[in-house]
Amino acid sequence: NAGVTQTPKFQVLKTGQSMTLQCAQDMNHEYMSWYRQDPGMGLRLIHYSVGAGITDQGEVPNGYNVSRSTTEDFPLRLLSAAPSQTSVYFCASIKAGSTDTQYFGPGTRLTVL
Amino acid sequence: AQRVTQPEKLLSVFKGAPVELKCNYSYSGSPELFWYVQYSRQRLQLLLRHISRESIKGFTADLNKGETSFHLKKPFAQEEDSAMYYCALRGGFKTIFGAGTRLFVKA
User: Fold this and answer.
1) Which residue of A has its CA nearest to B93?
2) What is the DSSP letter of B6?
3) Which chain A residues are within 8 Å of B96, Cβ to Cβ?
4) Fewest beta carbons within 10 Å, which of A15, A88, B32, B60?
């Protein structure tokens, strides 16, 4: 199993540009989440999904969209990037009902100029 | 509301000294609590969870429901313990993290 994969690893955008951060998992996990990691603020939940077709907002959803058309994929979209969205983004997944830990992807480092 | 508080942003100790990283939580139900560690430029990895009551790399953490705390402890810190440590609470579908504590172990 590849686990949780994220692409790209690094990205630089200009203010106002759009892009999609990709996240995929091959463990048949129902739950998937997106976090952003900022110094002094830890990891903050952006959006999460409990299954294909079902998404919900986390702590800091503004400026981000998500969709979950398949169990495997959970892309995060920035429609109009802002400098405040400069961060490291982590995707995570876990099997529903599991007492196991979440599995994290390697992260995407995004800089918005 | 779900909330995790880690009051210390930075904790600096000497090698061999005891270390305690504090975590307090707020949750109305029965929480699942975790400690994650992140070494420099690596992804988060699970350190331990309250459910298994285990000791990993010499670290332990006890859930105190009365004080709503889940502090992480190690009797003798090592230089390789230097990292970011995150306390996390899983309630329902969501996992919420604290702001993290950077542990720096000095030689």
Assistant:
1) A50
2) -
3) 45, 59
4) A15
The tokens describing A39, both together, are 């110094």
For A48, name the nearest residue in chain B, comparing CA atoms only.
Answer: B94
* Smallest CA–CA distance from A47 into chain B, residue: B94
Query: Alpha carbon of B18 to those of A50, A53, B36, B58: distances in Å?
Result: 40, 48, 19, 11
Are B63 and B81 in contact by the 8 Å Cβ rule? The answer is no
Place A108 in a pLDDT band, splitting at 50, 70 and 90.
Answer: very high
d(CA B13, CA A98): 36
Q: How far apart are the CA of B47 and the nearest CA of chain A, in angstroms?
A: 10
Chain B residues with beta carbon closer than 8 angstroms to that of A42: 6, 86, 97-100
Q: What's the gap between Cα A38 and its chain centre?
A: 14
Please tell me the distance from the alpha carbon of residue A66 to that of residue A12, in angstroms, as a whole number: 20
Length of chain A in terms of residues written: 113
Taking only the tens place, the pLDDT of each residue in B25-67 is: 998 888 889 999 999 878 888 898 887 777 788 999 988 888 8
